[in-house]
C-alpha cells in the first residue's frame, strides 16, 4: 500500500489537537459553550440574591453597578433580571442601593444552604479535591430541589457547619453562630482556635492550603505586624502575609480551656518516642476519618513508630497492639501529646 | 405502625442531631473504644517481665529496610515468575501432546467411525474441543504453579510488607501500595488479579487497580511474546546474542506494561476517578507459618480451577466461531477471508495486518489461542501448504517453520514489534471482562477497562508504524 | 482460666465432638442460623472451616471474604446453618463489607451471632463486639488465636470478660482445632435458649448524645414495641443512615 506516513501523522496530531481544544478541562470550547447555554434566568436571579445576602451580612451596601461588576453576567442581563426581581418582590431599591426583601432573604438563605450542604457532601462522601468544592457547589446550588436538599441534609446528619467552618442554615432558616476575629487583627499572645477558612479568592485559598493550615487547630499568635503574621500551632510555626491571615477566622479560647502546648502532629513523632493521641484534626474527613476512628486512633490511645518504609513514607504505627501503616499526609492530621511515660 | 409517626420520628432525629452538633460520630466512636478499653483492662494481663522475643520485628526490619527491602522483593517476584515459566513448560508440552496429538486424532477417528457429518465433526472437534484443549494445555500448568506459590507468600504475611514498601511509588500515580500485589497477581492471570483487588478497601484505588490490571502481561501472553521475539528480534542480532536480545525484548515489553500501568493510574486519578472516595490504611499482620499442603489445596480450588473453568466456558464458543468463520462461505470467500480483506488496510496503518486483527477479535476469550489462530488464518489466506485445514488451529513444532510461515504471510520486523505491543495493549480477555463486571457491578467501568487499553494499543502501534516508515 | 484441652483427641484433625456432623454446603432443613462476624485477620474463616468441614481459602491478609459464604453442621440432631460475614473493623461506617455484615445481623435475624476476636488484640476487637452487642442479644464470643496470645505472654480472664460483656466466652485456636467442641456446645446452648445473654450496652457516651438517644429510643419503642435494639437504631438515625430510615418506612423492623 502506498501512502505518506507524514500525512498520517499530521492528520493524527491534528485530531488530537482539536479534541484537546474542545475538551480540555474548564476552558475547552465544549465546556464553554455548555456553560453559556446554561446561564438562564433562574441562575442569574439566584446569584444576585446570594451576592446581596453576603454583602448585607458583611454590613455593606451595594448598588447596581457594583453588583454587575461582582457577577460574571453581562450588565443587560442583570438589569433585566433586577427589574423582574423587584416586580416579584425579591428585592427593593433603597435610593441607589439594592436591598433584599424578607422573601428575597429566605430565598437567598436556601441557596446558601444548598451550597454549603453540597460542599459538606463533597468533603464527606466524595474524593474531590478541596480546590474543586466551591465551583462544584456553585453549580449544584441551582439544581437541587427542596426535597432533595432535605434528604441530603438528613443523610449528612444535619450538619451545623460546612467544611470551611461556615454555618449551614437549617430548613427553617436557623443559622448557628460563627463568632470570631480575623487572624490578622489579633494581638500577640492571643490564644484561640481556627474556626473558619475563607475559600475565596482562589489565590489566597491556595496559599493557605499550601501552608497546611488546618481548621480546628489551636493557635497562639507570636508576631503580628504589617509584614507578617506568625503563629504557633500543633508544634510548628506558621508565617503568613497579613492579607492571607485576614481570610482565617479565630475564636479566642475560653478561660477554662488552655492551649495544649505539647500538642503536635503525629507526622512529627520520632522513632523510639511514645505519645498519646489527642484527636483527629477536622481536616481529616469522611471515610478516611471514620476508618481512622475504627482502627483505634481515638483520644488517649498510646502510639509509637513500629516500622518505617524504605522511602520513609508510609510509616507503620503501633497502636492498640497492631501495626498500622499511614501515609504522611494522614499522620499530619492526627494530633498527639508527646513524652508520656513508657510504663516499663 | 403509622406513616406520619415514622415521619415524626425522622424529623425528631434530624432536630436532635442538629442540636448535638458535628462531632457526633467522633464522640460515639471514642465512647465505644473507652468501653472497650475498660473491659479489656479488667480481663487482660500482659506479662511484661519476660523479654518477649519478637521474631516478627526482626524479619520486618530486614524486609522493609532501605538496603534489603527492594532487592528481596524483586528477587522473590522474579523467582516466582521464573519457576512458573520454566516449570510450566514440561507439563504444558505433555498436556499438549496428550490433548492435541493423541486425543484429537482419536476423536476424529471416532467421529469418522460413527459416520458423523463433516460439519458437525469440524464444529465440535476441530472447533470447540481444540480451543478448550488449547486453553487447558497452555493455561493450567502455569496457574497451578503460580497461584500456590503466591498464596504461600500471602499466608505467611509477606505481601502486606511489599505493599508497605511500594506504597510511596504507587501513591505518586494516585494508586494504593496494595496494587503492587494485584499487579503481580496479574502476571499470572488478569482475572485473578482483578479478583485480588478486593484487598484494596478504598473505592478509587480499587477501581484504578481493576482498570489497570490488564497492563500486567499475563500467562496467556508470555508465550506469544517469547515466540515472536525469538523469531524476529533474535534474528536481527548475531546468533550468539539472539537469546539475550529476544529475552530483553520480552522483559522490555513487561516493563513497558508497568510504565503504562502507572501512567494510566495517574491519568485516571486526575480525570474520571477524581470524585471517587479515597482512603488509605494498611494493617501489617503478624507472620504466621503457612500450612503448605492446605494452602496448595485451597489455592488450586479457589483460584486456579475457578479461573480455568471460566476460561473454558468462554473458549468453547470461541473455538466454534473460529471454525465457523473459516468454513462458511459468502460467494466464493469464507467469512474469515472476507473479514481479513476488509481489516487489512486498517491493520496496515497500525503496522499489523488483517489476520492479526481478526485473530484478536475471535480470540477475545483467551490470549492463549491467538498464535494458533493466526497460524491457521495465515495458511487460509496465503494458500501456502501446511496447517491442518480450514478452521483447525495448530502450532508448528519448530520455531523456524513458524517464522517461515509468518514471513510468507508478509510479516516484517515491524509487524513483530507491533504485535508484541498490541499483545500488551489490547482489550482484556473475556474472562477478565466478565470478572471486572462482577467485581465492579458497573457497565461504565467495565467499558472503560475494556476499551481504554485497546485504544491505547491502536495509538501506540499507529505511531510506531508511522515513525518506522519515515526512516 | 487456663486454656485446657479436654482430651488428646480434641486436637487431632479428625476429631469429632460427640454428636457433631459437618455438613459442608448442604444447608437445607435448617433449625438455627448462626452468623460468624469479626475483625479481618482474626481467623474467622478458619473457624468457619473448622465448624463446617469446608475449605474456604483463608489468607493472612485483611479482607479476604467479601461475599458471604455459607455452610452447615449438625449437632445433637439440630441443624445449624453458618454464615461467614465479611471481616470488618466496625459497623459504623458505610463500606460495602460493613453493609453486608450489618444487614445480615440486623435483618437476617440470626439465632446466634458468633463474634471471632483475636485474643492478643482484644481491646481493638472489642470495638466491633460492642457494636454487635447493641444490635443482637444472642451472641457468643470466640476468643481465637489463643496460641498466639500465649506466645506473646497475654493472659485473659475469660470469666471476667464473659461477665463484663454479658455473653459466653469460648477460647479457641481454630488452626489447631482447639476449643471447637466447646464452641459448638455453647452455640447450641445459646440457640436453644439454655444460656440467656445480657449483653453489655455502650456506656461512655457524652451526656448530650445519651439524652438524645434516650428520647429517640423511647419513641422508637412506641412504634415497634418488640424490637430489641431500639437504642442502636436511635444511634443510626442520628447518624442519618439512609438504609435504616428506609427500613423504618417500609416497616422491616415490625
UniProtKB/TrEMBL annotation, chain A:
Which N-terminal residues, if any, form the signal peptide?
Answer: none
Kindly indicate whether the keyword Chaperone belongs to this entry: no
Tell me which Gene3D superfamilies the record gives: 2.30.30.90, Winged helix-like DNA-binding domain superfamily/Winged helix DNA-binding domain (1.10.10.10)
**Domain of life from the UniProt record:** Bacteria
Give TM segment ranges.
Answer: 6-23
Q: Which InterPro entries match?
A: DtxR_MntR_Metal-Reg (IPR050536), Fe-transptr_FeoA-like (IPR007167), Fe_dep_repressor (IPR001367), Fe_dep_repressor_sf (IPR036421), FeoA_core_dom (IPR038157), Iron_dep_repressor (IPR022689), Transcriptional_repressor_C (IPR008988), WH-like_DNA-bd_sf (IPR036388)
**Domain Ferrous iron transporter FeoA-like: from-to ranges:** 181-252, 264-338
Q: Please give one Pfam family short name.
A: Fe_dep_repr_C
Q: Which keywords accompany this UniProt record? A: Iron, Membrane, Transmembrane, Transmembrane helix
> Which SMART domains does this entry report, sorted A to Z?
FeoA, HTH_DTXR
Q: What is this protein called?
A: DtxR family transcriptional regulator
Species of the source: Aureibaculum flavum
Q: What is the lineage of its organism?
A: Bacteria, Pseudomonadati, Bacteroidota, Flavobacteriia, Flavobacteriales
